[in-house]
Write a structure and sequence with these properties.
Largest sheet: 7 strands, antiparallel
Shape: flat
CATH superfamily of the largest domain: YwqG-like
Strand content: 5-15%
Helix content: 40-55%
Distance between the termini: 55 Å
CATH topology of the largest domain: Hypothetical protein YwqG fold
Structural class: alpha+beta
CATH class of the largest domain: Mainly Beta
Number of strands: 16
Number of domains: 3
Length: about 525
């Protein structure tokens, strides 16, 4: 009732204010208004009364707003008592609230309350062999389960962990110990996550259209797609096995702030990856032609064609943008030349020869700019012709790949033909080829071992073995038992993964936490994904 009264008071005040303003306007003497005022009753022409009405309206509006604000403030919940207060009554209140929350926690988590929990470490198997847990690749799901979406986009599959292999004291004994925990992330390699607990009859689920993994820096997805089609856009599956309990490198260790975990000389954690040096040694002497000599096949050639096409297309786009800037660059050049001439004209001691020299310099600058754009136009024409040629060659070779055994000479001839048409910049081509050859060899090792040549395996096996040893995935955290509020359960802690080709954040770790009470009730949608972004 009071709210309606205050609102009405504000409305009446507004009406009074408006009427007062109009009344004051009529009552004020103005040139040409004498005849109008003579037509109005005498009592209507009263400037003083109009001012009073304006004041009444303004006061009514002010009171209406003030009283409404006070009533709303009075209706707000009282501020919580200061939890740091020494007042006995306040302390008693907080003690009661804490006991109520703890009682609710005990009821929610049940028998696992107060237990200790520990973590386990997993690493990719070397040599690869099939186990019940894996990272990358495709998930095994029930037929009727949908592929999850994060913020409207298909999620990126990360890992599938066999819960039957988990120890009893993982997550304080909470959560299921049957089936698998399936973990997805978002396409940006950020904090979005989706979890599913699956069991029973499962089938490998194909990756839906629109999935866009955040690729690790060592990946060459363009070449892989050209070589394998959509299969080249699926991260590789690497089976996992238990690692020793003493393994370090989890987010938990980073947060421990233990100086023994930091290597001052290296400026990094003691568990920092050591495979980068091996990779440099492996890649150092690998170039395009060596790739064919190491046993690439038809699909490897298609991958290199895709890389060549991408590099030349990017170069073409850069040339096109430069040609579009021709008029603007010529205008800037002529503006600068005009300023130089005006400065020379303002110099009374300037000689005619100076003007002639400057004009000659300007003509030469314009001629050089014209030559530059002429060469760019020629390059653009050559690139267009070379891209058409590349498409024709690829169509031809795809037509007889099933009937003609691949030979290194074929690959050399194809790339020599394209580079004669337009040489791709080696600064871009070489590292992309190195990435692709390793990616493709890794794909063959994981998916089709019989297709992997001995030369490629011998070259990259030491690198993969080192990566398997250095890549640690953790499940759970080390926590002592507590009679207070229970710690969160860490469902997974996985690094940016060079073997699967996945990256998280700034080449950092991705981990998923969940309140223990939600894990007990299997509220998987309450899980929260986080990344370290290179540091904790």
């Amino acid at each position: 009732m009071f709210d309606r009264f205050f609102e009405g008071l504000k409305v009446l005040g507004g009406v009074a204010l408006a009427c007062g303003v109009l009344w004051a306007g009529v009552s004020m003497p103005k040139p040409g208004w004498s005849s109008l005022r003579a037509m109005l009753p005498e009592w209507t022409v009263n400037f003083e009364a109009a001012i009073v009405l304006i004041l009444i309206g303004a006061v009514a509006i002010f009171l209406g707003h003030r009283m409404s604000a006070r009533r709303a403030l009075g209706q707000k919940a009282a501020a919580p008592p200061d939890m740091f207060s020494n007042d006995p009554a306040t302390r008693a209140l907080w003690d009661r609230i804490g006991k109520e929350q703890l009682a609710a926690e005990k009821q929610a988590v049940g028998d696992v309350f107060g237990r200790a929990q520990r973590r386990i470490a997993l690493r990719p198997c070397w040599p690869q062999r099939e186990t019940k847990s894996w990272i990358g690749g495709l998930p095994m799901l029930p037929v009727d389960m949908d592929w999850p979406r994060i913020e409207g986009k298909p999620a990126v599959f990360i890992a599938q962990i066999c819960l039957a292999d988990m120890p009893d004291d993982l997550w304080q004994g909470a959560g299921p110990r049957d089936g698998w925990l399936v973990i997805w992330g978002d396409e940006e390699g950020g904090c979005g996550t989706a979890l599913r607990h699956v069991s029973g009859a499962l089938q490998e689920r194909a990756q839906p259209d629109g999935v866009a993994p955040c690729w690790h820096w060592n990946m060459e997805p363009c070449g892989m797609q050209s070589a394998l089609g959509t299969e080249g856009l699926v991260p590789l599956r690497w089976y996992l096995e238990p690692a020793e309990d003493a393994s370090l490198g989890a987010v938990e260790d980073m947060m421990a702030d233990n100086p023994a975990f930091w290597d001052d000389d290296a400026g990094d954690w003691i568990w920092a990856s050591s495979w980068l040096g091996v990779r440099h040694d492996v890649m150092r002497d690998l170039d395009v032609k060596d790739a064919f000599g190491h046993g690439l096949d038809w699909r490897g050639l298609f991958g290199l064609l895709g890389i060549w096409r991408r590099v030349v297309t990017e170069e073409r786009e850069q040339v096109r943008r430069e040609l579009e800037s021709r008029d603007a660059r010529l205008e800037r050049l002529r503006d600068a030349q005009g300023k130089e001439l005006r400065l020379l004209e303002e110099n009374p001691g300037a000689e005619a020869a100076s003007f002639a020299q400057m004009k000659l310099k300007h003509q030469q600058a314009e001629a050089r700019l014209s030559d530059q754009f002429s060469r760019l136009e020629q390059d653009l024409t050559r690139m267009d012709q070379a891209l058409v040629l590349a498409g024709r060659i690829e169509t031809e070779v795809r037509g007889f790949e099933d009937d003609v055994p691949f030979a290194a000479e074929i690959g050399h001839e194809v790339l020599d033909t394209l580079n004669d048409a337009f040489p791709a910049p080696s600064a871009h081509m070489r590292p992309a080829v190195q990435h692709f050859v390793e990616n493709y060899a890794r794909y063959c090792y994981v998916r089709h071992p019989s297709d992997l040549s001995d030369a490629l395996f011998d070259r990259f096996a030491p690198l993969w073995e080192r990566q398997c040893r250095d890549t640690l995935i953790f499940v759970g955290c080390n926590h002592d038992g507590t009679v207070g509020m229970q710690p969160d359960a860490r469902l997974i802690d996985v690094p940016s993964h060079p073997l699967a080709g996945l990256s998280f954040g700034d080449d950092s770790r991705f981990y998923v936490d969940m309140r223990l009470r939600d894990l007990v009730s299997e509220n998987w949608h309450e899980a929260e994904g986080l990344t370290t972004h290179g540091a904790v």
